[in-house]
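Q: Sequence in, structure out?
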Amino acid sequence: MKKTISLAALALVAATPAAFAQVTILGGGIAKECFEAAKYEKLSPGEGEEICTRAIESEALNPSNRAATYTNRGVLRMRAGKYDKALSDYETAKKLKPEAGEVYLNEGAAYIFLKAYPEALEALTTAIGLQSSDIHAAYYNRAIAKEKLGDIQGAYLDFQKAVELKPEWDLAEWQLSRFEVTTN
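A: Exactly. Output:
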């Protein structure tokens, strides 16, 4: 059974409150502890990362579970500000399970933290194309990237789509409220 959780990660992007990431896991054992460390944030990111590393190194995981564990470790690494290491984990996860949209969503969030907006845009567009389970977060993050790249209309439309997919999402609604729409 597959479980996917959305987590807000604090972004250090000016005028942009957050980028969103997902945590995914399949199975149990140490890999489940890794998932719980990422989901519940009861441990420090470093402690969670160590658990995930133990799962990767010592458990016999099928490719899907291994990809999910790399993804979870990447989320924990992002929380610790280790964006390059997080991207390395996402790259490994993509090789193991290239159809997993949540990996691309996480990758896009890491690129936003790094202010690498063209790369974020590419990863998030892929997450949307793969129908990531929290697709509203992919649209939201892609709107951030588009706005930072000067595509104001595209950003507005993506924020609007995020609200459409997750009605009454205060953060996305606030983003929309910053825009003034005029017709010519």
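Residues 41 and 48 are 8 Å apart (CA to CA).
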